[in-house]
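debug: dumping io for the single-chain case to check the tokenizer round-trip. Nothing else runs in this session.
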Amino acid sequence: MEAVIEQEKLLSSYECSKLANRNIILFLLGKLVSLFGSSIYSFAIGLYVLKTTGSGTSFALTIVLATIPRAILGPVSGVLADKLDKKKLVVILDMLSGIIVLALVVASSIDGLRIGYIYAATLLLNITNVFFDTTISASIPLLVDKERLTRINSFSGSISNLAYIIGPALGGFVFGVIDMKVFLILNGLSFIFSGISEMFLDFKVKEKIYGVEASSIDNAESSFVNDLVDGFKYMFKTKWLLALAISATFINMFMTLGMNIPIPYIMKQYWTLTDLQYGITMASFPFGVIIASLVVGIIPPAKKNYNRIIGGMIVFAIVMICFGLLTRFLPITMNNWGKVSVMVVLFITIASGSAFMNIPLMVTIQSQTPSDMLGRVMGVLVTIASVMTPIGALLGGILIDRLPPWLLPLGCGLVLVLLTIIVSGNKDLQKV
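debug: decoded output
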């Protein structure tokens, strides 16, 4: 399905720059407020559940409620993102998130902050987040010109990882200092503020710069089921996109199996790092992504994103192998801070590889996928990429009790080397 440009460029370069930069500022401001609210909420509410129930299972359930909607509703969210007005959908979803949190405040004022209410609000919030994330990802190419597509994606990634670093710290502060109901009120209002800022976004920048794209699909007449199927059909017939989806699936699986499960276990059980040392080490990953994302946003876009995507996969594989070898052969006499220093370097390196791979990958998908299919493609991609992650987590949990833990990152790194060799030979992917 090809989109046909029916009009010549409509805006001057000055007008284009002014409009696109305004959109970038408004978009990043809204995302900053929304993401920080979500991150602080998730951390603070998890601590509240753990303190109230004293149950690790109850705490884990809040995490499960955050992951299930994304895996199940990805394709559905993509269909709605393509069929409905993206601007209205983004604003309504942020407003709805605010209403859900404020409704939790009302319910807790009447009947107490019961765990059941928290579970219900958390589930509803994560459902709205799935639809919001898919819609906003599909909207980014509409907000800026092609030259600024890499920049807005890189800045967006920086904000996401900044929220992952600072959110838990603020969440801990909120939990210890501020009354939970007061926090929930502020959190609900932050979502509404984000929705208001998104009202001023211009979702027709692409149209104003390059002209109107003639869609090959009549969204008004097509059925929901047909649109859902079309998303999967487009994914499987677009060979370079299918190669990326399959690669992302196995990268996520082996990252979970080779890093997310064994590395925390190694640091806490084998090296007996303190909570502070562990926290510093884990925070180095999103910190590395922030720095690398800013660099990607500043340097000129690559002529071929293929090179950066493959380069990122190579970095992933090499660092995972290093994780395994260093865990096995790192001198026992090295003190904990020495081990932290080694791990921080590795985490920042793999985080940089992640940014240099993921941002060009996202830009490629956004720039080469027709606008009327982008929502469905993003939704299907999220589902495919995440489907093997629970398997990696389950397998990692089983193997770590039966094998020396350093074998997991070493083995997964070697598998990723093989995967990279296979993917690099894909002729369709070499063209992007």
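debug: round-trip ok. DSSP finds 16 helices and two strands in the chain.
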